[in-house]
Amino acid sequence: MKQNILAITLCVASVSAFAQEQALTGKIVDSAGKPVIGATVVEKGTNNGTATGNDGRFTLRTRTTSARLVVSSIGYATQEVTATGSEVSVTLADASTGLGEVQIVGSRSQNRSTTDSPSPVDVIDIREVTAKTGQLDVNQLLQFVAPSFNSNRQTGSDGADHVDPASLRGLGPDQTLVLVNGKRQHQSALVNLFGSRGRGNTGTDLNVIPAASIERIEILRDGAAAQYGSDAIAGVINIVLKKTVDELTVSTNYGAYDAKYRFDDQKFDGGNFNANVNYGIGIGKQGGFVNATLDYNQRQHTQRANVPSPDGIARREYGDPQVKNAAAYLNASFPVSQNAQVYAFGGLNKRRGDSYAWTRFADDDRNVPAIYPNGFDPIITSDIWDGSAVVGLRTKLGAWELDLSNNFGSNRFEYGVENTLNASLGASSPTSFKAGGFQLQQDVIGLSATRNYKTVLQGFNVAVGAEFRQEWYSLFAGEEASYRNYDPAGTPDSLREAAGSQGFPGYQPTDAIKANRNNLGAYVDAELNVTQRWLVAAALRYEHYSDFGSTLNYKVSTRYNLTEFLTLRGTYSTGFRAPSLAQVNFNSTFTNFIQGQPVEVLLARNNSAVTRKLGIPSLKQETSNSANIGLTSRIGSSLSLTLDGYYIKIDDRVVLTSQFSADDPVIGADLQALNVGQAQFFANAASTKSLGLDVVLSHTLGLNTGRLNSTLAANFNRLRIDRVQTSGRLAGREDDFFGPREQAFVKASAPPSKINLTFDYQMGRFGALLRFVRFAEVKLIDYDGMEQVYDSRTTTDLSLSYALTSHLQLSVGSSNLFNKYPSFFNPQVTETGGAWDPVQMGSNGRFYFAKLQARF
Question: Which compartment or compartments is the protein found in (predicted)?
Fold first, then answer.
């Protein structure tokens, strides 16, 4: 009965809304009177919106003929207009007329848009994406929207189970710089040690920023270290926070996976619930605002251990970790005069996760049957606190625009281990431990000045600036029982029980460290429109680090409009990436499994006595040379094409070396003295070359009374290990130092190609999205030294949306509709102990979801 009442209520609401609607038509043009194709027109405070067609015209059914409309398009200033009749005409001004207007990453000119940038830039409208797709966090949203971006959830990878590593153009997670509102975002304190993605790298945790707080994401697919500093070898991701006012948005989302591979009869698992609210208020009459977001997400475990395998299972629990994530974010601007504004943004994220470690079966030497008669599955827990705060002042000084800011960020990661034991304590062992952790903090003071000379040729823009950045890293020990062996002194080695908490032994006091460094950077960045068709640009940046010295990098670029519909562009740049403080200072003794057997492994910090004795030099910066040449074309008024080929050469990449055993003829005696079975290190051990192509083809078609947007986007990428550098006592042992298995992990940062074909149809209140994503094959090497070829896979996503009222929209659908999985392998020899490693599209199968969004 209640269901019938609800259905009748929704039908009445929909009929009532339709009865009150009025047909509103209009045209959107630019300052030259040309139609703006694809401009977004939204009735303020509602989910009711549309986009302009090939002639710049639109039709929108509104509640009244005096509706308030918000008109926006990248490269233009957003306008709000009130419809005074059934026909509306709007002229959009270029986004260069006011302080703090739209600025696209990759250029410091405020009159530059994605279409006339000399570098390839993707702009992703998060409002459009989140309304129609099943992904809820930023990493997964980008994984299926941007072909050059790759991120997979991992399992059995310790900390990487809780912080998803991500990469751009097939390079490392730490070779992409992340900005928020154009300011450097701090990295995670975590170093990825396992898994096929991000091995040996640090990276930025994109998922600390809720999607509900984001207006758009800009991806610069080009080397930009000369413009933005360290880490921008592969490109830059700029997250632009919302600044809407007088609009309340509330969303609830729920989804779950088809549980095909479980021991039990459960049909669904991995339930994912998300709820968020966003609201903004205006301040004063000069465009001030405060926009706030609250977000909560809870994701349950998936279970994929029950995969048919002739070799049995390595783990009883295998799948996604359980995560609870709460975030609060703020974006604000406070005008203090007509030419000055104080701005502030940032937020706080708290994440609690638990993931399954490798199973200790009942007869395992590291089990205590009195505690776990059937064996046990240790659970690695995480408590992650991430916070950031940026405060700045933008003002004008004559013809110059100044920006002074201070940016502080902190990421703290604390490990715990539950459902475990310390075997050396026997039956009296606790079953949970605090295992220690690490923290990374960053503070950046920056000053920039920008000026545009409109009378120099066809326009000359110059920007100069300086930054002073300080970083702090600390690693702190766990409680004593998480790492200590309590066997009595004199116990023979053959009778000595395993020390520390099983699944994740705690960090020891000898691992603990506090380190810091600072760097000073200065840059000049200029763009000159030689003619209306020809743009040239250059950037030069100097940085000095307190721990390894100085670096000077440059970038030159150009863009030439061959015709009104065809443009050539190209860039060449040098770049660098400073080794993270975590890579320099991380030290740990941990448990690895080889063919299901536990082995103690020492990961020695770079400047330790062990690495010095072996002759491994101090870490230094990675350096790069990259080139990009591209073509952009608008074929007619509704079809656009961009082709961008790129080449990236990186020398002295910081990698995690192969593991050296205690019977090694050169360093085995040193390892035996440390009572460890294997050891590995961070070193500038590899040089790589990447050759690739990005393709984006988009088309807009009026279909009946609706609009069909079609997009074909692809990334083709080939990474080659060009050279392996050894040093010290390990010189000449390239295959031992950084062998084929470790090289395969670097190459598997992304599939050789990823192709995305999307059809997005909107007609009145109804919308549909159909998306195909093809992931090329990925090759890894297992513990037996055998090649694993993960065959290519194509996933299909389908979603349907309907505006129940002008304020309420419902979306339902499925990701990976046909339940595709990666190729299966022997769990005894994979990196994760499951039937596959974290490659391609993920390993959970079909996902069903529903979303309800209210906008007022």
Answer: Cell outer membrane
